[in-house]
């Protein structure tokens, strides 16, 4: 193995595109593959097909360097790379909790069929425990007698911080079964390791589980504080102060204790459900049965937000105009997968509200899923003439709204703060009826 192995990245979605571009930034030669021709053409033209701060600039920087190219051809990838990263998606199966492994299986199979020499294949996709062993068998079966090996390397990047998280991760986890595999994957992350990043070298099952355990913990932390928000609502307590107070205990920590509309996105919801499904298959369903509560608490927050708006609209959405601020599952993202904001917008639309939705980046993605809603091109347009304003994704543009200026545009000064980011004293002082989740 050379000091600097040549890398491939299979699947150029969120994770793969970021990984490919960042590995070039770290000094590697990289080829990215996707079966979606349109995605590959966009990347070749220097366009990132989703919103991620900093990534378009890095792609532009490296597209002309000759160290980054994109293809749809597995033969080209197999010829080029010494280490192959599989970064395809594992969405929730329709109508079930379990993860859909079709893309993982077909990526491994397609790559294996084209391999001609000993390489390391690294799984990065989030998968149920036990998948890596099956993929190792698949590699041996479809690329026999070459000594091809597998490693599992879960990814912890956050959307909106994907570049930073990839260049400077807080840890690296390598699931490997041989010294050669460990040394090879270390060589593929040499600059990151030299920068002092902690490395955990472990077996396949642990590497697979680290990822789902981490996301389950984060989801549980959010649902814990949202459960406290429910209790706060019944007692008149303030969940934001409660979070600040318990968060000062370093054993608890303040991060991921923001109560509100709860978690969404392409990871947390589907990962906890896939974990529940896999634990059931393994006969340890009781061990993670609390994750069902985590999921339910989370979904209840959406229903509660719809109710809060209903109260402010005197019991009916029919005939009212509602400004919904935010469609993305979180700020600094255009991702609307399982987005709490979009879910609530659609629910109040079904109840007869004339929804005017505005998101700084996610309008186009939201419109594809919910063409029945009306989309505004600006905050001003969304709030003009509204009977109710609902802040559902905490973009900076919404956090810094001036209650007086917005107040002069709406028909009624009613606001639901679904993310607990507005100052109730200031808004009430400007004559607004202010409601939020877990705050009096
Ligand atoms: C999550 C994890 O944080 C990453 O470490 C992981 O790599 C990634 O999933 C993945 O599996 O690929 P991400 O989905 O980008 O990252 O989003 P988060 O920042 O974790 O936020 C998830 C959701 O929780 C958002 O809807 C956010 O609004 C919500 N949230 C977060 C809260 O409601 N309260 C909080 O205090 C924090």
Strand order of the largest sheet: 3-2-1-4-5-6
Strand coverage percent? 5-15%
| Helix segment tally | 19
Subunit arrangement of the protein: single chain
Overall mean confidence score, pLDDT: 97
Count of folded domains: 2
Looking at the overall shape, the CATH architecture of the largest domain is 3-Layer(aba) Sandwich
Question: Brief description of this entry?
Answer:
The protein has 440 residues and is an alpha/beta fold. The chain has 19 helices and 14 strands.
What does this structure look like?
This protein is of the alpha/beta class. Helices cover 45% and strands 13% of the residues. The chain is built from 19 helices and 14 strands. A six-stranded parallel sheet has the order 3-2-1-4-5-6, with helices on both faces. Strands 11-10-9-12-13-14 form a six-stranded parallel sheet. The chain has a two-stranded parallel ribbon with strand order 7-8. Helix 4 packs across helix 5, helix 10 packs across helix 12 and helix 10 runs parallel beside helix 13. The protein is globular, with a radius of gyration of 23 Å. The model has no long low-confidence stretch (mean pLDDT 97). Bound molecules: uridine-5'-diphosphate-glucuronic acid (UGA). The site of uridine-5'-diphosphate-glucuronic acid (UGA) has 21 residues, from helix 10.
């Amino acid at each position: 193995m050379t000091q600097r192995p040549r890398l491939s990245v299979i699947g150029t979605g969120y994770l793969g595109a970021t990984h490919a571009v960042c590995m070039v930034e770290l000094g590697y030669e990289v080829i990215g593959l996707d079966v979606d021709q349109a995605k590959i053409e966009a990347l070749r033209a220097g366009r990132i097909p989703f919103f991620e701060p900093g990534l378009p600039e890095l792609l532009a920087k490296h597209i002309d360097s000759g160290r980054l190219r994109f293809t749809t051809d597995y033969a080209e990838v197999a010829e080029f790379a010494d280490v192959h990263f599989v970064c395809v998606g594992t969405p929730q199966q329709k109508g079930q909790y379990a993860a859909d492994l079709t893309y993982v299986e077909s990526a491994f199979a397609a790559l294996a069929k084209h391999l001609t020499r000993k390489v390391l294949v690294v799984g990065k996709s989030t998968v149920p425990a036990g998948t890596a062993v099956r993929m190792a068998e698949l590699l041996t079966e479809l690329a026999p007698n070459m000594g091809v090996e597998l490693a599992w390397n879960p990814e912890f990047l956050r959307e909106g911080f994907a570049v930073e998280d990839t260049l400077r991760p807080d840890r690296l986890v390598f699931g490997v079964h041989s010294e050669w595999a460990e040394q090879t994957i270390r060589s593929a992350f040499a600059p990151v390791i030299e920068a002092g990043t902690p490395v955990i070298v472990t077996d396949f099952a642990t590497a697979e589980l680290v990822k789902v355990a981490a996301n389950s913990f984060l989801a549980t932390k959010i649902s814990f504080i949202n459960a406290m928000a429910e209790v706060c609502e019944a007692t008149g307590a303030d969940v934001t102060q409660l979070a600040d107070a318990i968060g000062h205990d370093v054993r608890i920590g303040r991060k991921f204790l923001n109560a509100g509309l709860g978690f969404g996105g392409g990871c947390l919801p589907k990962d906890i459900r896939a974990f529940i499904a896999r634990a059931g298959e393994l006969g340890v369903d009781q061990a993670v049965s609390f994750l069902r509560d985590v999921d339910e608490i989370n979904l209840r927050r959406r229903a509660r937000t719809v109710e809060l708006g209903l109260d402010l609209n005197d019991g009916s959405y029919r005939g009212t105009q509602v400004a919904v601020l935010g469609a993305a599952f979180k700020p600094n993202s255009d991702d609307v997968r399982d987005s709490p904001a979009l879910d609530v917008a659609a629910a109040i639309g079904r109840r007869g509200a004339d929804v005017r939705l505005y998101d700084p980046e996610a309008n186009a993605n939201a419109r594809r899923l919910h063409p029945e809603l009306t989309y505004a091109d600006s905050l001003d347009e969304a709030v003009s003439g509204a009977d109710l304003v609902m802040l559902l994704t905490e973009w900076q543009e919404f956090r810094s709204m001036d209650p007086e200026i917005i107040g002069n545009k709406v028909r009624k000064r009613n606001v639901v703060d679904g993310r607990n980011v507005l100052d109730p004293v200031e808004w009430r002082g400007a004559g607004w009826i202010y409601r939020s989740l877990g705050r009096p």
